[in-house]
Protein 1
Amino acid sequence: MFPAWNPAQPEITDLLVQYDPGTLQRLPVRKQQLLDVFARFGNHRASRAVTALPENAGVLDDREIDALLLTVHWEMQRLAEEFYHGHRVWELLRPVVTSIRQAGVRETLRIVDLGCGIGYTTRWLAAKISLTDHNIEVVGMDFNSTLIAEANRLASAEGLPCRFLHGDALSGEHSSHILVSTGVIHHFRGDALLDFLRRHERRETQAFLHFDFQPWFLAPLGSLFFHQLRMRTAIARHDGVLSAARAHHARTLTEAARASVPGFATGIYGSRIWGTPLPRVFHTLIGLRPDLVPGLRRELGRHVARLGELR
Ligand SMILES: C[S@@+](CC[C@H](N)C(=O)[O-])C[C@H]1O[C@@H](n2cnc3c(N)ncnc32)[C@H](O)[C@@H]1O
């Protein structure tokens, strides 16, 4: 295996920005600390990308790092557009919303896009779906205040009826009926994955949908091809391929969910192409309250074949 594809290591963007977990205040990040991490994995590609990062006396320059992260997220948005990600989310979200309605919930449903980055999914939903007709509200949340400021700027430039909040989407302060995320869950591994899922167990939460890359032996190669073609920053190219290598298998996700949140029926949606053994690029960890399962199956129509066992 190439050192840059070793799934045991973190992605560069996981380390670029660090926060105080209580206040979410930015903490100084020493470049040498990052170089030491990638030296341990013999990952020269990551080390070269980190060496080139702007710094002041060995500490990464926050403003420059924010500008770089914005560029990376603009590039990721282009991929999301090309992969029709908004359509993918709504295909599953719509029947989930309907099944919650059929169970008798009348209030406005709050859908929180956890780790929204610059908010592509949230803005797509606000632009393409009549939120009033469905009586839903869409909110994007992220730990990173720069990404949230950019998401708010884009939503206001586009005149979209959605909001973006800086904060922890799983904290007690923010409630959600449905949690969605894209490209987030593989960042949580081992005990951190169990803890992340455990924090979904809230009285008002009816469902969660975590969209992420599906691992496959050719996925890092496919990702390498797309990232070389479409991404310009060394960091996006590096992390894009590593995230395909770090993506969780369906079994890891379902076992973690069943151990952490037994109050939800959980399974995988959309893992195979048209009933063939060929894997889709994305799969979704879905969890919903058990009484909603029959309604979801009905509402999925012919797409019910894409739904794995929910338990
Ligand atoms: C790879 S980025 C996701 C990008 C974005 N979803 C997209 O598709 O462009 C992962 C993000 O998740 C955020 N994050 C992780 N856990 C979170 C939580 N509990 N609440 C809010 N943001 C979270 C991190 O701050 C990070 O920006």
Protein 2
Amino acid sequence: MDPQDLPSHVAFPAAAAAPCPACGGSDTHSFYRLQGIPVHSCVLLEDADRAKAFPTGDLELAACAHCGFIFNQLFDPARIDYSEDYVETQGCSGTFRSFLEGTIQGLLKGRECANQLMVEIGCGRGDFLEQLCRAADARGIGIDPSSTAGRVDLRAGRGLSFLQESYSKKHLALDARAIFCRHTLEHLPKVQDLVALVFKHLESRSDNWTFFEVPDSLRILKEGAFWDVYYEHCSYFSEASLGRIFESAGFVIKDLDLVYGRQYLHLLAQPGTCAADQACKDPAQMLQAVQIFRGTCCATIARWHKLLHGHPPGTVALWGSGSKATGFLTTVGNHDRIDCVVDINPDKHGRFVAGTGHEIVAPAALKGRPIRTLIIMNPIYTDEITTDVQALGLNPQVLTL
Ligand SMILES: [Zn+2]
């Protein structure tokens, strides 16, 4: 796709950018711009008109040459309201539940946590904390301004409670043995503030520990995975930049791995003095990936744009209505070819995707619709979804992002 053929709201600037929010470095450059994208990608609306009129914002990703951190330099936290009614995105999937179980088993291996306090920052509706405390026989406190606890078993482990507020200094009084934070750090513009507060919370004991899970952005850049870039994500990490942020705060990193089909980074750290050979992670890989992103992203947009163009209107369906679907729909163009978005979560059915206003339907609703092609939004669910499609007696062309 020639740059002049890109959807008009997509651009690849090359300009000096704001100072790095992670390390303070001034050698930063912007490289990807999206104009007018929905400020929330997980919020689902009651009708199509409201979904299409949903507030938008602009994104301009910049990379720091010193530490490799990537950030949206146009991000405005005031645009985001985390008390909005989020709908749980993945909990209905067997694949995802197995992933959570495996994660928890790995974290608890060799650690005595019975009756200890586990704190989760950004706990959502509390499924992870519930499973964790049950497996560890521990106490749990979930802290999240959008916490919708009530669907979980508050008696799990030694008991759970939830605080509907943001994690702050006042929570340092909680006697936590471990602090968990999954898919939250990428939503914060000042990432080092949260990591420093967690360090302060845990520093009194060297056997306290913390676990963070964030999306890996090296893959996004290398694959041109434009559907994984959206407004709420203002911070993007690689192993190097994530590790550097924690080491700078005073943590020793015990584990830093790519998991979940290499989509997520898992970091396990404890307070302590960082060994010299751990310090100064090399940002070179990330910076090389930034260099090739224009090419990879143009190629993926062109590929999907062409595929959609080859279909009559209303003959394509997406499967999976999480942020990837919103990112895909709002970036790729040609969305009149897409009839609907399928999701297995009944709470989402009859609601609409912010930005483009596509309806979310149950798998069974595909019957009777003229769908020629089904695009799976996350390749990790391909087997699970293919089985569901076959069980419905349908035979569309099935593609994955
Ligand atoms: Zn930096």
